[in-house]
Amino acid sequence: MNTKSLLLGAFLMFFGLSKAQAQINFGERALGAVQKGMTGFTFTDADAAALSKPAVDKMDAENKVAGPTDPYAIRLAKVFGKYTKGEFYTLNYKVYLTKDVNAFATADGSVRVFSGLMDVMDDNELIAVIGHEIGHVNNHDSRDAMKALYQKEALIDAAASQSNKVAAVTDSQLAKIGSAMIDSKYSRKQESEADLFAYEFMKKNGYDVNAEESAFRILAKMSEGAQSSFIDQMMSSHPDSSLRADEAKARAEKDGLYKPYVKKPAVTTPVKKTTTKKKTTTKKKK
Ligand SMILES: [Zn+2]
């Protein structure tokens, strides 16, 4: 057996997918974008949403998603439940139960928050970090990243299936889209603008804007410490936490709103269970 087929076999076994399941069709809008060719095609927010939605569904299926009665899901709903309407997107929220410290939002308005992040942030800090992710959607960064990725993927696909028009994206492409959505590399300018979005969101809705500085200080500190492995992903896609904390502080000072942030306890009520199994949501101490 060659390496390629071994890898493919392992991939299919891992995801338990048959070939039929692996073909996912997109709506006409996304297909329209494909058929217009590889350069200069218009790629709308709806196209990006159509492309990201099945990738998010796939990730939801592969991750441990907190159910509606899970304390993490309840906390997230309490903090964000009222914020679902965006300019051209509707937000939906889920928690992935994992120690990783991360969060991402996709072009279709799906916001995914890792429980590891919720363990280290209080509610205001969560709003700052997640608000930043929503900022990328709001500012069309997610759409643009999706467009760039799609152009890259469409090129590969076109070479393979010149004759039979691109009518579906394969499961492996979907996986690529998924990991690209988590690890989206944005420009420094896009990052600053997403931070600003989070700041303005907090200001507008009456939250303590100083939580933004605090959130980035936490991330900066974690990246130096023993927990760094848990935040590698977030750090790699969002560098310069200390710098961003400084910028957040400067913004608050300029608005006359600065005062050192007093962290509130991150309250995620433990599940009341009759079983003996303990949840392992506590942080690792070394
Ligand atoms: Zn970002």
TrEMBL record:
Biased composition (Low complexity): 259-273
Cofactor(s) listed: Zn(2+)
Gene Ontology molecular function terms on file: metallopeptidase activity
The keyword Protease is assigned to this record: yes
Extent of Basic residues compositional bias: 274-286
Domain of life: Bacteria
Root EC class: hydrolase
Keyword terms of this UniProt record: Hydrolase, Metal-binding, Metalloprotease, Protease, Signal, Zinc
Biased composition (Basic and acidic residues): 241-257
Family: Belongs to the peptidase M48 family.
Name of this protein: M48 family metalloprotease
